[in-house]
Amino acid sequence: MTFLTPEDSLFLWIVFAILFVLLPTLALYHLFQSGFKTKNSRLFWVFVIFLMPVVGAMLYFLSVLSIKNRSNKSFPL
């Protein structure tokens, strides 16, 4: 009984490559393109992304989205 065909394993390698290479690379690119108030916050995110590439990148994007959503809320008068 086989669970994975060769085509399935290739698909999994591609998914893992995207998760472990592309996601942290995009997070670091976005980090250096965006403006932070202090260099310490940028340095913190660099360490988080390097120490935990996939989880750190996801946390970075989630925090950026939450900050962006918080700043774009309009309050009716």
Automatic annotation (TrEMBL):
<dbReference type="Pfam" id="PF13396">
    <property type="entry name" value="PLDc_N"/>
</dbReference>
<keyword id="KW-1133">Transmembrane helix</keyword>
<feature type="transmembrane region" description="Helical">
    <location>
        <begin position="44"/>
        <end position="67"/>
    </location>
</feature>
<keyword id="KW-0812">Transmembrane</keyword>
<protein>
    <submittedName>
        <fullName>PLDc N-terminal domain-containing protein</fullName>
    </submittedName>
</protein>
<feature type="transmembrane region" description="Helical">
    <location>
        <begin position="12"/>
        <end position="32"/>
    </location>
</feature>
<dbReference type="InterPro" id="IPR027379">
    <property type="entry name" value="CLS_N"/>
</dbReference>
<feature type="domain" description="Cardiolipin synthase N-terminal">
    <location>
        <begin position="25"/>
        <end position="62"/>
    </location>
</feature>
<keyword id="KW-1003">Cell membrane</keyword>
<keyword id="KW-0472">Membrane</keyword>
